[in-house]
Write a structure and sequence with these properties.
mainly alpha; 5 helices
């Protein structure tokens, strides 16, 4: 019984650690890396969509700040253009994810980029 209790506690600690690691990835905006977490893969599709949506939102915030910094300093228009393309792409993906959350069977299922579909399953 005691060994069983210890293994259960260790398992719970791993899950807590895994959950906090997942939260860190979401906060960091690392939306493409979420699939690596078992706890993420165990979520419902809606839970995975929400996690990716939040991570994308965080990533967008980071990119927009970087873009404003580039624009403020009048540096590298090519880099700013590349950054703006990435921002626009991520905004479209995030908007599609929002539609996925509100989708019902009478609507047309929104199309997502293949890489996003692989992440949310």
């Amino acid at each position: 019984m005691n060994d069983e209790q210890e293994s259960k506690e260790k398992s719970e600690k791993r899950n807590v650690k895994s959950e906090s690691d997942l939260d860190r990835e979401i906060t960091a905006g690392e939306w493409t890396r979420l699939i690596r977490f078992k706890i993420y893969r165990q979520r419902s599709r809606q839970g995975r969509v929400l996690a990716v949506y939040q991570a994308l939102s965080n990533r967008l915030d980071q990119l927009v700040k970087a873009f404003y910094e580039l624009a403020r300093q009048n540096q590298s228009l090519a880099a700013a253009g590349k950054l703006m393309k990435e921002i626009n792409y991520l905004r479209r993906v995030r908007d599609s994810l929002l539609v996925c959350l509100t989708w019902n069977e009478t609507d047309v299922l929104p199309e997502l980029p293949e890489e996003v579909e692989e992440i949310i399953g």
